[in-house]
Design brief:
Blueprint lengths: L2 H15 L12 H10 L5 H14 L3 H4 L4 H8 L5 H19 L7 H5 L6 H10 L10 H9 L8 H11 L5 H14 L12 H6 L2 H15 L1
Helix pairs in contact: 1-11, 2-3, 2-8, 5-6, 9-10, 9-11
């Protein structure tokens, strides 16, 4: 199978499995999405979706958020981890949104990445999911699967994003990055992985990974 054929197989299989794609993080507008994505750093989406209703009940916009202290924000978001850094970031970026953008979330990568605690991945998610701008945010699932599927060297997320953008058509980026995330969770997890259920890796996977899986199964049988 050529690389082009593998890419086509991935796109078509994911489209069949996920014709409609749920958004992992609950939100109602660009601001609440921005905060939810910021909170998701080193935290599960499930946990974030448990915490954001508590935070947004008090402040679901930057004007209300700055009325809270950093410590009040920190106490609410503590279960998400990294709460000292995240609470300062949320409070700080809310001030900037009011001072520079009339309380609105800016629609550019440069402006978003200049906000406190907002990195490239967070900016990419917001640009993609809030504003429909083509982007390819790479999380741990995408990084793992792109390597398993022999579509990247897997050296780092920066390289994985670069490779993904090079091989996948721009018009499918926004759907595809979400489809890969859901596929990774359901069929190709880091732990408890069953290759028999993982049709994409089984079909296009990196040979050394497939061999290693076969060896593991052989050892278990013995």
């Amino acid at each position: 199978m050529t690389k082009k054929e593998r890419v086509t197989f991935v796109i078509n299989t994911l489209k069949e499995l996920y014709p409609s794609i749920p958004i992992p993080l609950d939100h109602k507008d660009p601001y609440t999405l921005l905060i939810a994505v910021l909170l998701s750093a080193q935290c599960t989406d499930v946990r974030v979706n448990q915490i954001t209703p508590l935070l947004f009940a008090k402040a679901d916009n930057p004007f209300d958020m700055i009325k809270m202290s950093v410590d009040e924000i920190k106490e609410i978001i503590r279960p998400c981890g990294l709460s000292p850094m995240k609470s300062k970031g949320i409070h700080g970026l809310s001030h900037i949104l009011i001072d520079k953008y009339n309380g609105e979330v800016p629609q550019s990568f440069e402006a978003l990445e200049a906000l406190p605690a907002v990195g490239h991945k967070t900016a990419s998610v917001v640009m993609s999911q809030a504003f429909g701008v083509p982007a390819f945010p790479v999380d741990t699932h995408i990084h793992r699967l792109m390597y398993r599927w022999n579509l990247t060297s897997g050296k780092n997320v920066v390289q994985t994003e670069k490779d993904a953008k090079a091989i996948f058509p721009k018009e499918v980026w926004n759907d595809l990055h979400l489809q890969i995330i859901w596929y990774g969770r359901e069929y190709s997890p880091a732990r408890g992985w069953d290759l028999e259920k993982d049709i994409i890796t089984k079909t296009v996977g990196r040979k050394d990974i497939l061999k290693e899986f076969d060896k593991k199964i052989s050892r278990q049988v013995k």
